User: Which sequence fits this backbone?
């Protein structure tokens, strides 16, 4: 079960972004701006940054999350986003004396397969322990562990990258587990920065159409729109 | 005159880094670690990260600075550091109705040249204003302004990059103005994160020798050391 | 006058990108794919990458340009694009015994101002030389040089970043000198990679509207479109 | 078995780097420099860049590798290096009708465990196929596949990052499979750029000591050196 906790973040993230943004077109410095901006002015500035695509000031606010209960399948996808910082639990240095793993809902839904799935994963973990006891180093024994194995990590991302990653990973065509992860990331951001949190959404909401081969149904694809118009 | 103010930063930056670092070798999650670590344990962990070169956890703490009173000469160098976020006052959009500029000490030291320097810079600024009044857009009029012209910006850097940049820019062979800038950056970091602040130092302190062609005198060059030994 | 020469690039850049892209959905390896893909298949794959926003395979082809005859005003803007590599002529280490500079067309158009502009820039350069002769180091003497001063550099950018940067810098609302620079960059890319070269275009061609505050006239702004529809 | 093929690279990579480096301290442009530099001058320039830590010109040469026969355990580590581009075979979109996997030597060395390892991995793959046949999507069925499962990818890295990554991953304390991978990467680079290839080596060769907790024996640790001296 994905667990996400915001353990640290740039205080007053929206105001920090807005003050930085104003520096580019203002004769006044940032220290002064931070204090003077009203929340209304902050919201208006963030609106304008996003609608005009001037996204770099959004980098001045960062968010650090503790993430647990995701599979290695998903963490492998996650760390492909390079504009972020990750520190992940190592399967080389940590011998897993306790073992948790993810079961996809499509498998849970089929009783007989589900039983085999648990059996197979348990067998793999039992062999992992047996190898550790026989002196195989953890870094080698782990080769037998399934992609389902849970991992934990700390991730820091700035607001610009969060908007970008959510545009891809809140798309319902993304892997269900990573969708779940970023829904929780969004919920955490919304608590402390509602204006920014509202910008964490699938790309189609910004495009006005679906750019995947097939739509989930929320928006028609570009091809479907072209079809209707003609 | 360089002015640097830390306007925002990851709260409790050293603890955040240490908790993230522990996640990689621990069976416990980050939320728990953040609360349990003593300052002593935090310092020990940061020591170990740096001495072993495991620097990525240092990325989880970011620092946002308001910087004013630096020349465009220096801001051009500064933004070459790409692992950081900058928002700079635009000479395209801001018409400089007030004008400040930097005078290098080597020029101030020579009375006659100094007078010519001020004269020449003032002439350039006067023409800038004349061009604005004649309807030349600010983005073109500024071509006449000298590299000495002051600028202001907001810069966000994480602790890993701060350590890297200071290793280069606190070297006394670096441009004097950027040395001054990062001395003030270091002073600001030291106030809120003394353990990290202590790591902001020229590369020679880490190498034990000077890797420039000629030394400033603090450490001998590698060639000088080799000479002495033979 | 901006001069751009493509001095090196990933050979067969479009095929390299297409082969890499196919690896993600294919049971065959990249070495085999590189040889087998027809140019038609290559074009089709690149079309699909771009229309679906799966841009990362475009990073596998890089282009290295020699750039000369741009002002420091423009190089300062240019190096703000951080997903690229730059090596620039240093005003610290190179004493400029020859001096070239840029004159914006809006200034050339006004005879009297133009004369003053040349006078002022020449005066600044004369003082620069005088300071060098008086023993002022080049790194300090340059503070008097104008933003108009020409510089040269080598820039390497991959195809993904070229597409992104051109989307911003071929916009006619961008600074005219950087527009000229990227028009020449585009022309160089077109010679060796016509399919990619065609993708180097202002953002409005992709959006179907102008997201600036005011349009240059090619596409209406989002606000203008909304106005017409209602 | 790790397979690495250099499928593309910046032609004449060392000359490209050297010409770019010279631009920073030269009054001549890069196009001219590329033609005039002798291989001896190229080598001398690259020596100086590396010994003085002026590494950014090394970014102008990129290398693109087809990599096959590595485990997902290793690809997960590999993609943590963020200054590079990767396109990896997807387990979401590719149903693995053929299955290869890695067996660590420490396991092969223990006959009985090895048999169990093959059995367990085979069982997992059989269940994977059974799930596919039952209509479970590949993206979910793969949760049962072990970290040992082979993957393939295309990786592009510039020379600066190759030097950095090899300094970490050619250390014999690194995971054996990633050591093997980068030994083959190094061999490929050496064929076309011997001067650069020689710089792909573990960090201890540069430091003169081992900065790991325990040495592999090639160099003593810093603590061991301090001990001997006192």
Assistant:
């Amino acid at each position: 079960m994905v667990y996400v906790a915001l353990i640290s973040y740039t205080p007053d993230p929206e105001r920090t972004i807005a003050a930085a943004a104003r520096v580019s077109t203002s004769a006044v410095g940032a220290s002064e701006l931070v204090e003077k901006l009203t929340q209304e002015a902050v919201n208006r500035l963030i609106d304008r940054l996003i609608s005009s695509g001037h996204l770099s000031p959004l980098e001045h606010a960062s968010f650090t999350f503790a993430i647990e209960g995701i599979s290695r399948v998903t963490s492998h996808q996650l760390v492909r986003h390079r504009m972020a910082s990750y520190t992940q639990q190592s399967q080389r240095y940590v011998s897993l004396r306790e073992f948790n793993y993810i079961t996809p809902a499509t498998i849970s839904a089929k009783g007989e397969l589900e039983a085999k799935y648990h059996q197979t994963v348990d067998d793999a973990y039992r062999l992992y322990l047996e190898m550790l006891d026989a002196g195989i180093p953890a870094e080698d024994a782990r080769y037998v562990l399934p992609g389902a194995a849970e991992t934990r990590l700390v991730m820091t991302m700035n607001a610009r990258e969060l908007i970008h990653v959510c545009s891809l990973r809140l798309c319902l065509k993304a892997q269900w587990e990573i969708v779940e992860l970023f829904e929780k990331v969004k919920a955490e951001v919304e608590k402390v920065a509602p204006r920014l949190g509202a910008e964490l959404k699938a790309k189609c909401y910004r495009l006005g159409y679906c750019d995947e081969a097939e739509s989930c149904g929320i928006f028609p694809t570009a091809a479907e729109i072209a079809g209707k118009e003609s």
